[in-house]
Design brief:
Layout: H1 7-57, H2 62-73, H3 76-92
Amino acid sequence: MSVTATTADVKDKRKDGASVRFAKDQLKAIIERIEHLEEEKKALAGDIRDVYAEAKGNGYDVPGATYGHTSAQQDKHERAEQEAILETYLHALGMI
């Protein structure tokens, strides 16, 4: 039994090959973008460490600065809720 390929079969194989090549190129591009962003993230993390070191070197309390930064990102209701929870815990522990 012999197998002969029709013109349609050949075209389908070319399309599939092009699709595979496109998917491969697209996946490669996505991975490269992720790698680039990971490099940027590492650089930014280093910059943030440097800023905290500068704050510490200037006599600022780093945990306090971190709390201030986190609090500044919350809306006032969210911040009030977190502070109320903290106050409740401190009170329960007999710390206030």
